[in-house]
Design goal:
Blueprint (H helix, E strand, L loop, with lengths): L4 H22 L2 H17 L10 H21 L8 H5 L5 H16 L3 H12 L4 H8 L3 H18 L12 H7 E2 L2 E2 L3
Antiparallel strand pairs: 1-2
Length: 186
């Protein structure tokens, strides 16, 4: 749909001020021109949102400002990687597996004797030291170490964990089956 001539003239009249504002924001003539062009495209595409009789230049300046800051935010979350070599190394573990393993861990914990469950939750889940866990459970440090070890062995059996790779990405499972930065499994 073509624009009315008066609206076209108002858009063209706003360009010098938009360009000056864009240049003050980004400091680059080429980037400023791109920003003005993007602003005009968005303004024309959304002209139905403009209220006739109000200040078109101010409306376009707001669009330009939002466009600039949105691009800055996007750039702030990205790393320049023209060949894609850095991007190719990035991976994310699927969340579904972690949720399923966490559910499996909760079910396995319920099958442990209470003293082992308390020990593994205090040491593995809450990250307390053996000494702190021993004080809480009113027993010797060696007893907590042995209960934690038995709990880890039993959890590994219940969850069919035979090697370190079976532990998976779940932080709760890693905490339950790992100690002192070393992972243990049956």
């Amino acid at each position: 749909m073509p624009l009315e001539p008066s609206l076209q003239n108002a858009l063209l009249a706003a360009v010098p001020n938009l360009r000056a504002f864009a240049l003050s924001l980004c400091g680059s003539i080429d980037r400023a021109d791109d920003l003005v062009q993007e602003t005009l495209l968005r303004g024309i595409a959304n002209i139905h949102l403009f209220t006739p009789g109000t200040n078109l230049a101010a409306w376009l300046t707001t669009i330009l400002r939002h466009t600039f800051f949105n691009e800055c935010r996007r750039r702030g979350h990205s790393v320049e990687d023209p060949k894609g070599s850095y991007e190719a190394t990035l991976t994310t573990q699927p969340e579904q597996e972690g949720c399923a393993q966490a559910t499996e861990l909760r079910a396995a914990l319920l099958k442990l004797p209470l003293d082992q469950r308390d020990a593994i939750i205090l040491v593995g889940g809450e990250g307390r030291s053996y000494e702190e866990a021993a004080k809480i459970c009113h027993c010797a440090v060696g007893t907590i170490k042995s209960r934690t070890n038995r709990a880890r062995t039993r959890l590994a059996e219940l969850m069919s964990i035979e090697q370190l790779e079976d532990i998976g990405p779940s932080p709760s499972i890693q905490a339950a089956l790992c100690n002192d930065n070393l992972c243990w499994a049956a």
